[in-house]
Amino acid sequence: MSTTTNDAGSIHMPPMPPVPPTTPIPAARPIAFEHPPLTGSALIMGTIALSAATFMNVLDTSIANVSIPAISGDLGVSSSQGIWVITSFAVSNAIAVPLTGWLTQRFGQVKLFTASISLFVLASLLCGLAPSIEALIFCRVVQGAVAGPMIPLSQALLLSIYPKAKAGMALALWSMTTLVAPIMGPLLGGWITDYISWPWIFYINIPVGLAAALLTWNLLKNRETPTQKLPIDKVGLGLLVIWVGSLQILLDKGKELDWFHSTQIVVLGVTAVVGLALFITWELTDAHPIVDLSLFKGRNFWTGALAMSLAYALFFGNVVLLPLWLQQWMGYTATQAGAILAPVGIFAILLSPLVGKKVSTVDPRWLSTAAFLVFGLVLWMRALFNTQADFITIMIPTIVQGIAMALFFIPLVTVTLSGLPTSRIPAASGLSNFMRIMAGGIGASVTTTLWENRAILHHAQLSENINISNPSATQAIAGLQAQGMSLEQAYAQITRLIDQQAFMLAANDIFYVSAIGFVSLITVVWMSKPKKGGDRSSSAADAGAAH
To answer: Which of 442, 470, 511, 530 sits at 20 to 30 Å (Cα–Cα) from 251?
Structure first.
């Protein structure tokens, strides 16, 4: 739900000799060694390789969602068992992302990133070949775990190959892949499942991953970061697995088990809360914590990460809600719903390079403010939808939303990384992306649950008017019977119409509250104090170029 930053330049210089990979250095004072930026074709190929790896990773978080019925049927299990294909990846990925900082110090950025891609390709192959649901779930666990460092390191490496003055451009290129992939996932997954077969949603990773790994290693192997022999924080890792796993399973199973009316959900909730409390206590006191929670001492980090997480929770919740409403209650097919979502990339792709150029000269808090105001406008427009809304009416807010998305990631990442020293960027990127991923899962679960609960309320209110004393109701029933329906069929048709209206009104409620939420987040952004002028790009770039 991870990030990657890179800085590149245009000066041709001979490759630097690799830093000895196992040279022990003090944990508190990692060596900062900066390589020159890449130039020309090397810069272009490096950008493509890093972006392709990010796209492949993010795509896999959503590509299997629409394929669960086909996977479940083919492997002879229920849909609820098939959901674990999604859950297993999400849990292991969420656990692995915040470990990026520690793993980077132990193995180096380039080696870790290349190994992560290679193992991801192998896990993808095994997922497609899995003969049973148990084997598939195990392979998805492995796939999610090895994918953890990819997004944070892709952002760090991308910043490291670009000049400091173009750090914003590097972030813009990275953000486009993270914005487009979640939208493409369900569309591509559905098409592959319908017209080829579900294993190919995993096989398509193989050529992309191999190309990205080979390009990355050939271009960046002489730009490795120094390493340290750090002890493994076994207690911290165990607590992380416990509380993140419990929370993720709670979010995935909550609606199915009626949330806290279920003993299983209560136990998971208590385990997650207690595990989190123990995890925080341990990590703040351990000499070599596996997750660097001291990052929260920096105002820019905690305000930027908090704003990003809360905004992403609202954003992702609505990304899930809109196609659900269109397909379940407006009669849209998956392809048609995808066509509604696709135009969001128009302004996002056109404006992201411009935002990348301006982020070093314009206060990123103003850019974030503009993003949240546009998000608020988009959701307010959707809050005015009714069941008669046509394709164009529904698409217009999606097109406008592309403006907000172009202004969303880059300034907030800039705020989050502002002022951090070079050596701490992988840990900061991993931790902030972990928060964003978890927030997205929470946002999706809360949004869909509230939608159904509000629909039940609206259905009850609308049904109160359907009785024999209401002339409009009796006239509608008579009209349906005149068309050849029986009384039961007429009532069923009216119930369907009431359901449609109830879920429309419930969606309006969610859109409206989300609009208020985005506008409210502006106050969080302005609690930060990012560096001024060109220092902002330098600080982000330096943080990403931990060489």
So the answer is: 511
